[in-house]
Amino acid sequence: MLPRYLREPADRRTPVAYAGYKSTGLRAPLRTPVDLPHRLTEVTGPVLGEDMVTAADADLTLRLGGEAQGQRIIVHGRVLDSDGRPVPHALVEIWQANAAGRYRHVVDNWPAPLDPHFDGLGRVVTDDLGRYEFTTIKPGAYPWGNHHNAWRPAHIHFSLFGQAFTQRLVTQMYFPDDSLFGQDPIFNSMPTTARHRAVSRFDLERSQPDWALAFQWDIVLRGQDQTPFETDDDGDVA
Amino acid sequence: MSDDRLSPLVLAADESNDRRQGTPRRGSGFLTEPFRLGTTPSSTVGPYLAIGLTWADGPDVVAEGTPGAIWLRGRVFDGNGDLVPDGMIETWQADPDGRFAHPDDPRGAVATPGFRGVGRSHTVDGGAYAVRTLKPGRVPDGEGGLQAPHVDVSVFARGLLDRLVTRIYFADEAAANAEDAVLRSLPDDASRATLIAQLSADGYVLDIHLQGCTAKGMDETVFFAV
Q1: How many whole angstroms separate alpha carbon B104 and alpha carbon B202?
Q2: CA–CA gap between residue A238 and residue A234 (Å, rounded)
């Protein structure tokens, strides 16, 4: 039997356009999207696993022959679907700024130092229980040109495929109680009822004495619609 | 995550509440809809996506030298008709037999060796994307018929707070396109035309317009909610 994925109501999703985030003005489509039925192309999706990652990809603090500057942290959690089921063996890709809030990227040229031992890229595959873990440094906040004195709260970018095209998610993880949330249109574009799900939790239990603070963040992908779904003898989806 | 749970014991206040307004009501103790966790909201990839999302073999749905390989190419434009040089597209498709490289395909595993199904291309070089692939076959439409050959596409960029989803169909599949349920559901030929790739020297070409631009005669691509 083919899985069938829930459709998320628009008011529970981040809208593709948001007035306070200027770059959406010429990029977010103006027309209402057309509902695409979930057929085979949508309920299947890229299966990307262990061959995409190496063990070293989970530790962003040891790169380019040395140790990164900054507050060492462990970021961990589970990837689940909205039915509470773990999503095992799923590729998780992350990228982030360094401790000073600077990305190693040609178009990021604000005057904060680059770190010769930090490239800001991490990859892991979730385990049998959907768990993931990275060791990294806490990214810094940084200014951007969206409005006067605009600053992005510290965040880590996450990209996940899940197990189907319908589950694809790219998002940003934040840190608890950041004073910059209030003025950040990217944070505030998320529905008020869903924002807290983008904020990690400080995790004293998993913090390692004399070594690293820990933050825990579970990621919830769209789950399945349990209504029975028939397949006829030809293998066509009924 | 406890505030995401639908408690069967306590319901939200409503107008029928006979106690003080705003007081939650007592529930039945039975769930009235399935237990669900709230999903994590999406966000933009921002301008620095290339740091985290670059694959050396990103454009290779099939390896170089694969017999029958074609290039799907195009450019991505914004509402001014300007190229989007910092975006990324991902493609997902069936192989030439119409099968997917995925365990949930009920007809069995993909039959084409080395066929990954997924492609990823940044639009760093002047807003152009390209993936090397095989033309997909027809796929069941779920209603006893077949869909026209198509590729599902996700578009990511700074300025998009969620991915956009569109499809690529093929101009030389006129008969299949004419009976495709998704294409038929679109309002007019102009909308359909935004999804149909044209033959080119090494495959097919289709530009993606995030917004229409009347001044330059560009129609907005049809995007889908999944």
Answers
A1: 32
A2: 10
What pLDDT was estimated at residue B1? 39
Quote the mean pLDDT of chain A. 93
Q: Which ranges of B35-92 would DSSP assign to H, the alpha helix?
A: 49-53
- Asked if B105 is an interface residue toward chain A (Cβ–Cβ < 8 A), one would say yes
Rounded to a whole number of angstroms, the CA Rg of chain B reads 22
Domain extent listing, chain A? 50-221
List domains and CATH numbers for chain B.
49-216 (2.60.130.10)
Asked whether the beta carbons of B70 and B203 are under 8 A apart, the reply is yes
Inter-chain CB proximity A219 and B40 less than 8 Å: yes
Q: How many helices, marked H, and strands, marked E, lie in chain B?
A: 4, 14
Active site residues of A: 103, 142, 152, 155, 157
Q: How confident is the model at residue A230 (pLDDT cuts 50, 70, 90)?
A: very low
Q: Do B159 and A23 touch (CB under 8 A)?
A: yes
Yes or no: say if A150 and A183 are a contact pair by the CB < 8 Å rule. yes
Identify the pLDDT of residue B16: 62
CATH of domain A50-221: 2.60.130.10
Provide the terminal-to-terminal Cα distance of chain A, rounded to the nearest Å: 10
* pTM, entire model: 0.91
Give the DSSP letter string of B98-162. Answer: S--SSTT-TT-S--STT---EEEEE-TTTTEEEEEE-----EE-SSSSEEPS-EEEEEEETT-SS
The two beta strands, A72-81 and A213-216, are parallel
Q: What is the mean pLDDT of residues A12-32?
A: 97
Phi, psi values for residue B79, rounded to 5°: -70, -10
Kindly list the residues from chain A whose CB atom is less than 8 angstroms away from the CB atom of residue B41.
12-14, 171, 190-191, 194-195, 197-198
Closest chain A C-alpha to B4 CA, distance in angstroms: 9
| CA distances (Å), origin B2, targets A171, A214, B37, B159 | 21, 21, 9, 32
DSSP string, A154-223: SEEEEEE-TTSGGG-EEEEEE-TT-TTGGG-HHHHTS-TTTGGGGB-EE-TTTSBTTTBEEEE--EEE--
